[in-house]
Amino acid sequence: MSEKMTEKLQSRIEDLEADLAESEKQVTELLAKNKIIENENRIYETKAASLKLAFRKLEYNFDKLEKELRE
User: Fold this and answer.
1) 2: which DSSP letter?
2) How many Å apart are CA 7 and CA 3, to the nearest integer?
3) Is the CA virtual torsion 14, 19, 20, 21 positive or negative?
4) CA 69, CA 62: separation in Å to the nearest integer?
5) Three-class SS of residue 1?
6) How would you write the pLDDT of the chain (71 residues) with one tens digit per residue?
7) 28, exposed or middle or buried, with CB in 10 Å at 0-12, 13-18, 19+?
8) CA dihedral 64, 66, 69, 71 (to 10 degrees)
9) Residue 62, Cβ neighbours under 10 Å: how many?
10) How far is it, in rounded angstroms, from Cα 55 to Cα 61?
C-alpha cells in the first residue's frame, strides 16, 4: 500500500474516531436528559395521584354532606 493511501486511511480513521467520540458525548447527554425527564415524570405522577386522592376525598365529603342535608 502506498504511503499516500496509508495517510488517507489514517486520516479517515481519525475522523471516524472523532465522530465516535462526539456521538458518545451526545448519547451521554441524551441519557442524562432522559433521566431528568423520567424523574420529572415520577414527580408529576405522584402529584397527579395526590390530586386524584384529594378529589376523591372531596367527592366523598360532598356526598356525605349532601346525604346529611337530605335527612
Assistant:
1) -
2) 6
3) positive
4) 10
5) coil
6) 699 999 999 999 999 999 999 999 999 999 999 999 999 999 999 999 999 999 999 999 999 999 999 98
7) exposed
8) -70
9) 10
10) 10
Grid coordinates of 50:
395526590
Rg (CA), the chain: 30
User: What is the CA angle 67-68-71, rounded to 5?
Assistant: 90
pTM metric for this prediction: 0.65
Three cell numbers, residue 29 = 447527554
C-alpha grid cell, residue 7: 495517510
Of how many residues is the chain composed? Answer: 71
Largest CA distance in the chain: 102
